[in-house]
């Protein structure tokens, strides 16, 4: 017998999450029977689980339904992010096989945790209730705590896990306190009910502002916005490289999905206040991230600070707050996934038995050893810097255009100046690859799966830069779905 308020249709709408849950358990069980030297079977099975989940999302379609007693929303916004998460997880797993082989560690629990983190992200994107969103966030966070320290003999990996866990727990406490204040002020954890209650303007203004500030701080940690970013460089450097890639893409995208759900759907009446906060965060984040990245010699730390700056760019779309601004946020998150995962895939390529491969000097002469990999890295760096005709240029063009349209011209100008500044450290990587012929270590040899991951990321970076119309249409439909819910809640 089903619980009150649930129907058989709920289980149909939850088919993607059910497939992913059962598939992740299957991977964990298969680990007991697959020999350790054949760990590629497990990563391949995990990629198949991600693909099956994506097919389930397509099969369910977009019913515009709120299910499970108002806990989850099945809409275009959630579908967009779910497919993004699954694609990022699949690329991460494809580049993980050779990395795990070099590190000599098991693949079963690793793949299970990647899929579990993805499951948490999916609930964060679909959740329209604070407790549901928080449970999804915790599922993702706990998985990443373990994955960050997955290389047990590695002191840097252990340090990354401890720092991420301690600071993550602290930030989650802040976020939960902010959510509890919202519940106390409105009497509900439903975003729609919160928006309706706050539209009456009877809540305590001071407590409401405190709640907004606390939620912004908690979310700011997850997106690595300044001044909540101090964990990111050490965790990115110490974690296994594929996990660093997934953390910088999947966790960031899920956190922005959560941010948009909470503030656009749940707090539209407070938009003037949270836009001011996010505008300040955007300016400081993109500026500090780019300045700090200039001085880095470790490529993972450089990409960590770059990721911080990229979060500042994405916040520009949030500040705009218009349908075009929300669409630009979604566009840039997908574009960022391709170029960031591709860059980290090249870093994974340089990890061999005799070389860690995460220093700039390890890129010396890559063009003379692996010209295709060097060409791919060149395009990833140019895309991160926003140079046409790459997808990064189109993403930033859409973001800054949305800001100007919404009246935030100053913010757009600061974003453009920061993009120009970032070119220094991106081009620096290119100089090491193409102009310095002093290779160190053995010849880097990509496996078929790793080569495919780089090729897919490269294709996405180029295709979305040359012909971005399908992405624009999908993002605009998703933004309309979120906007429609916000308007309904506000009435």
What does this structure look like?
With 491 residues, the chain is mostly helical. It has one domain. Helices cover 77% and strands 1% of the residues. The protein has 20 helices and 2 strands.
Name some characteristics of this structure.
77% helix; 20 helices; 1% strand; disordered C terminus; two-stranded antiparallel sheet; globular; 491 residues; mainly alpha
Can I get a quick summary?
This protein has 20 helices and 2 strands. It is mainly α and 491 residues long. It has one domain (8-490).
What is the average per-residue confidence, as pLDDT, rounded to a whole number? Answer: 88
The best one-word shape is globular
Distance between the termini: 36 Å
Enumerate the spans where pLDDT stays under 50 for 5 or more consecutive residues: 485-491
Radius of gyration: 21 Å
**Approximate strand percentage:** under 5%
Secondary-structure class: mainly alpha
Order of helices and strands: HHHEEHHHHHHHHHHHHHHHHH
Total discrete domains = 1
Number of strands: 2
Query: Could you give a short account of the major beta sheet?
Result: 2 strands, antiparallel
DSSP helix fraction: over 70%
Strand order of the largest sheet: 1-2
Number of helices: 20
């Amino acid at each position: 017998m089903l619980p009150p308020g649930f129907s058989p249709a709920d289980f149909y709408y939850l088919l993607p999450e059910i497939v992913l849950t059962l598939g992740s358990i299957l991977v964990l069980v298969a680990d007991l029977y697959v020999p350790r030297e054949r760990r590629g079977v497990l990563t391949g099975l995990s990629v198949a689980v991600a693909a099956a989940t994506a097919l389930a999302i397509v099969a369910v379609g977009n019913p515009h339904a709120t299910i499970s007693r108002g806990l989850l929303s099945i809409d275009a916004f959630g579908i967009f992010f779910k497919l993004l998460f699954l694609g990022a997880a699949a690329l991460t797993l494809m580049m993980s096989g050779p990395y795990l082989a070099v590190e000599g560690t098991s693949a079963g629990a690793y793949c299970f945790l990647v899929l579990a983190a993805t499951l948490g992200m999916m609930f964060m994107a679909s959740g329209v209730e604070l407790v549901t969103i928080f449970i999804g966030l915790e599922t993702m966070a706990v998985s990443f705590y373990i994955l960050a320290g997955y290389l047990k003999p590695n002191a840097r990996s252990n340090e990354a896990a401890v720092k991420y866990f301690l600071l993550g727990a602290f930030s989650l406490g802040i976020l939960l306190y902010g959510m509890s204040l919202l519940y106390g002020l409105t009497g509900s954890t439903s975003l729609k009910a919160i928006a309706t209650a706050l539209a009456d303007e009877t809540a305590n203004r001071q407590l409401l502002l405190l709640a907004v500030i606390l939620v912004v701080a908690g979310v700011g940690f997850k997106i690595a916005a300044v001044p909540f970013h101090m964990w990111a460089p050490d965790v990115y450097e110490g974690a296994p490289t594929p996990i660093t890639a997934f953390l910088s893409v999947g966790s960031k995208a899920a956190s922005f999905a959560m941010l948009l759900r909470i503030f656009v759907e749940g707090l539209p009446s407070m938009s003037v206040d949270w836009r001011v906060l996010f505008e300040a965060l955007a300016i400081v984040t993109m500026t500090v991230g780019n300045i700090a990245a200039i001085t880095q010699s470790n490529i993972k730390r450089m990409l960590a600070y770059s990721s911080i700056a990229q979060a500042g760019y994405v916040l520009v779309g949030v500040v705009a707050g218009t349908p075009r601004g929300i669409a630009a946020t979604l566009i840039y998150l997908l574009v960022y996934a391709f170029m960031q995962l591709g860059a980290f895939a090249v870093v994974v390529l340089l990890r061999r038995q005799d070389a860690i491969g995460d220093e700039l000097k390890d890129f010396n002469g890559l063009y003379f050893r692996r010209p295709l990999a060097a060409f791919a890295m060149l395009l990833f760096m140019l895309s991160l810097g926003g140079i046409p005709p790459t997808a990064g240029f189109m993403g930033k063009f859409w973001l800054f255009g949305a800001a100007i349209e919404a009246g935030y011209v100053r913010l757009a100008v600061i974003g453009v100046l920061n993009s120009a500044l970032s070119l220094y450290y991106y081009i620096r990587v290119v100089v090491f690859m193409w102009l310095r012929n002093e290779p160190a270590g053995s010849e880097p040899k990509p496996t078929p799966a790793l080569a495919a991951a780089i090729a897919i990321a490269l294709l996405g970076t180029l295709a979305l830069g040359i012909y971005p119309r399908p992405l624009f249409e999908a993002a605009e439909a998703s933004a309309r779905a979120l906007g429609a819910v916000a308007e309904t809640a506000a009435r």
